[in-house]
Design a protein that fits this description.
Helix content: 55-70%
Order of helices and strands: EEHHHHHHHHHHHHHHHH
Radius of gyration: 26 Å
Strand content: under 5%
Shape: globular
Number of strands: 2
Low-confidence stretches: 1-88, 291-298, 477-491
Largest sheet: 2 strands, antiparallel
């Protein structure tokens, strides 16, 4: 009998602190009997020694005495036995715990993303403008390529937590977990079937998710890269005010794309929050009258400025599209545990970094040969500050991807607008130049919009949790019956 492909704990499963913690829980909080054939990476007391664990559930060593009664089969469960083993209050408790954990993780990664983005912006500004290493595409390639280290860093953390487990079963279980969540992402189903390991394929076996993840990574990375490049291309063609105001309208486009792609419902609270946020950005950009008069803006003619605004407008649209595409095609479906969402977000971030390293290097020699951007290795202080800017960008990217996976693209976009006010505050601290009235007023508008959107998102998540709890209580038997049928398909 083949192992249960959904029997392992999610990564760092928080439900282990609940009653019956030694049992295996799926992403909806229901208990499943662990398979005796498959060592679990997330078992609180793994026993990799084959001599200490009986691989045969029907062997005589499974019995404590000479009783001849037939032992129960751990894989064959019916809806009746599931109802008797898994009471609804326990499942509801696990659901509430996971939702609370989702709030805390979202708040933590929001804070990390704001801090790391602010530090990265300041360091990149020093490298490009003060130290003269102004290589736009090369910097973009290095920063996005650094995302490849997200998965190895996550793997190191997991290894520290499970250092008593031998490396080979540990590594196999990590890859298996990626396959399980990858199948959930591809089919957008929490109970999607997962293809078996090589050598155990069957005629009706579902396809491996790696092909889907490869094409999804290519599409999302291309949208992200073009959006990022538009910023660098438009820097010298338009004014800083136009650049800031237009590019940060990506929050509006994220909401616009969320309606058809994510089936997002129109909520007046979200509409008002996005409108207030964009108004705050416009106040910051244009509230001081003509802030660009002394920064070389007068040398930009009308045609060049219009073209620059068009380029940055396309970048704003593509950045909003990138966030929604990532949420729609690369995030686990609703009902997935919070820690699985976190770990898979970092895994997909590493895929983006890998695609950047192995594919997007091609324009670098072309830009060098044409003289558009001659390649030059940074040295001295520029190299040191560039290194830390890349580290900060990697931390921001991982946190931002996690934030989108746990919440929504609209919430993440509006939250990122807080960096405008935070960067202005850091400039005040570093240069001693006080904030203008427009910057302070715009910051108040952005923070108000973020507060409104946070409240609206919290209420929406609470309503979804309550709806799932009611469905669990009212139709738990039907869900468990369907769950057992999906288990039979995996045998």
């Amino acid at each position: 009998m083949a192992p249960d492909t959904h029997s392992s704990h999610p990564l760092l499963d928080p439900s282990s602190s609940l009653p019956h913690a030694n049992s295996i829980n799926d992403d909806r909080g229901r208990r499943r009997t662990p398979s005796p054939y498959h060592p679990s990476l997330y078992d609180p007391d793994p026993n990799p020694d084959p001599s200490a664990a009986d691989p045969d559930p029907f062997s005589s060593s499974s019995f404590s005495g000479p009783s001849t009664a037939r032992p129960s089969n751990p894989r064959r469960t019916t809806s009746t036995s599931l109802r008797s083993v898994t009471p609804v209050p326990l499942a509801a408790q696990a659901l509430h715990l996971d939702t609370t954990l989702r709030y805390r993780l979202a708040a933590f990664f929001l804070l990390v993303s704001l801090v790391t983005f602010t530090v990265q912006t300041e360091l990149a500004s020093i490298v490009q403008h003060d130290l003269g290493w102004d290589k736009a595409y090369c910097m973009l390639y290095l920063t996005h390529g650094s995302w490849v280290f997200l998965f190895p860093l996550q793997l190191g953390v997991l290894r520290l937590l499970k250092r008593e487990m031998p490396w080979r079963p540990f590594w196999r279980q990590v890859l298996w977990e990626v396959r399980v969540v990858g199948s959930m992402v591809e089919h957008q189903k929490v109970d999607a079937q997962t293809p078996r390991r090589r050598g155990r394929s069957m005629g009706n076996q579902p396809k491996s998710p790696w092909r889907y993840l490869a094409f999804t990574t290519a599409g999302v990375t291309c949208a992200l890269t073009v959006a990022g490049l538009s910023w660098y291309l438009a820097v010298s063609m338009t004014t800083p005010s136009d650049l800031t105001a237009i590019y940060n309208c990506s929050a509006f486009f994220a909401y616009a794309f969320s309606i058809p792609l994510l089936k997002e419902k129109l909520h007046m609270g979200k509409i008002v929050a996005v409108a207030i946020a964009i108004l705050g950005v416009l106040i910051v950009a244009y509230g001081d009258g003509n802030p660009d008069s002394g920064s070389g803006a007068g040398e930009i003619n009308g045609g060049t400025r219009f073209l620059g605004n068009m380029i940055i407008g396309v970048g704003s649209v593509l950045y909003g599209l990138y966030e929604v595409l990532y949420k729609r095609f690369a995030c686990p479906p609703e009902g997935t545990s919070a820690f699985r969402s976190v770990t898979f977000a970092n895994t997909f971030g590493s895929m983006i970094g890998m695609f950047t390293i192995f594919v997007l290097w091609i324009p670098i020699p072309i830009l060098h040969w044409t003289g558009i951007e001659p390649f030059e290795i940074p040295t001295g202080r520029a190299a040191w500050l560039l290194f830390w800017s890349i580290v900060m960008n990697m931390s921001f990217a991982g946190s931002f991807l996690v934030l989108i996976s746990l919440t929504s693209p609209v919430f993440s976009s509006v939250a990122s607008l807080l960096t405008i006010f935070i960067v202005a505050m850091s400039d005040w601290f570093m240069t001693g130049k006080p904030l203008s009235g427009a910057s302070m007023l715009g910051g108040v508008f952005i923070m108000t919009a973020f507060g409104l959107l946070s409240w609206s998102t919290w209420k929406e998540m609470e309503e979804e949790e309550e709806a799932r709890r009611r469905r669990m209580i009212a139709g738990g038997g039907e869900e468990e019956e369907g769950d057992s049928e999906s288990d039979k398909d995996e045998v």
